[in-house]
Amino acid sequence: QVQLVESGGGLVQTGGSLRLSCAASGTVIVFNDSGWYRQAPGKQREWVAGFTTAEGLNYADSVKGRFTVSRDNAKNTINLQMDSLKPEDTGVYYCYGRHPITRKEYWGQGTQVTVSS
């Protein structure tokens, strides 16, 4: 059974940094289409950053220059380094991955990020 397990959320002050990790288990297949979404309280889930086979790595304008996505294919993990955090970055962060053959999407359980002002 394929699972995505996230770690690394927490509470940080404005301007601080956090690093999120997402590890895929139950498969050795690398999810080329993978990345991160987030959901702030009372808002819809929004895409943050990620890889696609067609376009490579992209970032939402709101995080460009502050967040960095990296991937370790050998460990089948995807990471999100978040710097210069702002209160508006607060939310639950979800990693996702799409199986390259079945096209099924998998989601992590979510990890809370809270940025205090």
The main sheet comes to: 7 strands, mixed
Principal-axes shape call: globular
Strand tally, please?
Answer: 11
Ends apart, CA distance between termini: 40 Å
Are there runs of 5+ residues with pLDDT below 50, and where? none
Q: What would you call the quaternary organization? A: single chain
Order of helices and strands: EEEEEEEEEEE
Strand content: over 45%
> Could you report the average pLDDT, rounded to the nearest whole number?
94
Number of helices: 0
Structure classification: mainly beta
Helix content bin: under 10%
What value does the Rg take, in angstroms? Answer: 14 Å
How does this model look, in words?
- There is one protein chain.
- This protein is an all-beta fold.
- Strand 9 (91-98) and strand 10 form a beta hairpin.
- The strands form two sheets. Strands 2, 4, 5, 6, 9, 10 and 11 form a seven-stranded mixed sheet that branches.
- 0% of the residues lie in helices and 55% in strands.
- The protein starts with a strand and ends with a strand.
- It has strands at residues 3-7, 10-13, 18-25, 33-39, 46-52, 56-59, 67-72, 77-82, 91-98, 105-107, 111-116.
- It is built from no helices and eleven strands.
